[in-house]
Amino acid sequence: VLVLPTSADVARRAAEVVLEGLAAARGAGPVLGLATGSSPLGLYAELAGAVRAGRLDLSAATGFALDEYVGLPAGHPQTYREVLLREVCAPLGLAPERLHVPDGSGRTEQELVAAAAEYERLITEAGGVDVQILGIGANGHLGFNEPGSSLSSRTRVKRLSDRTRHDNARFFDGPDDVPTHCVTQGLGTVLDARRLVLVASGPTKAAAIAAALEGPLSASCPASVLQWHPDATAVLDEAAATQLR
Ligand code: F6R
């Protein structure tokens, strides 16, 4: 657990942890697991700086998103595919054809279940994720694994909690426009990544961070699975770390 004064420091330090993990990656190109939301934006900007400085080359890399909303039209600016095309592919030089995002466009349960299974297959085919970047929900969710999620879950359809829909309403015209469901990597899927890097800033994350890092390993705080992982780093600013003992 690394605690730093500001969110800018968090972005810089987390970028170093990611770079180190990518440098250790074996295989043809590194496999990067990508979170969306506000938390990793500074980290992505730092990684873009490393690309410009010649310290990072993602031209042969593959990216896997953590999750995707169900039911948004293709090309909607808040689909996580579009967000990652903007925030990661363009600035970091990750080829769009090697960006994988769960397919949330299915209209039936069967289609969505098949898309989730296909996503697991693609991750396995790529050799697994080398470095998984993570944020944490104010309710302790990881990916969109809301409280109560099985600790061994795989990619699947989940209903978003009212808290998460409320928190994410800032990206939409209002809370009612936030989709009700998503396809998310499971906690078991996340745990399979070889390195986990969680970034969190600000006081709204303090309670979730304390529960995740110092509470019991429990489905009531999905991010507590980090305690189970042999190579997990949480990079926090002081505001997010205030409830740690
Ligand atoms: C996003 C994701 C979520 C976010 C979390 C925090 O892909 O899986 O777990 O990391 O909701 O969101 P922000 O960073 O916007 O506070």
TrEMBL record:
Hydrolase as UniProt keyword: yes
Q: Which domain of life is it from?
A: Bacteria
Q: Which SUPFAM superfamilies match?
A: NagB/RpiA/CoA transferase-like (SSF100950)
Q: Which Pfam families match?
A: Glucosamine_iso
Cite the InterPro entries for this sequence.
Glc/Gal-6P_isomerase, Glucosamine6P_isomerase, Glucosamine6P_isomerase_CS, NagB/RpiA_transferase-like
Keyword annotations for this protein, in alphabetical order, are:
Carbohydrate metabolism, Hydrolase
Q: Where is the Glucosamine/galactosamine-6-phosphate isomerase domain?
A: 6-227
> Could you tell me which CDD domains the record lists for this protein?
GlcN6P_deaminase (cd01399)
What PANTHER family would the database entry show?
GLUCOSAMINE-6-PHOSPHATE ISOMERASE
Name of the protein in its database record: Glucosamine-6-phosphate deaminase
Q: Which organism is it from?
A: Terrabacter lapilli
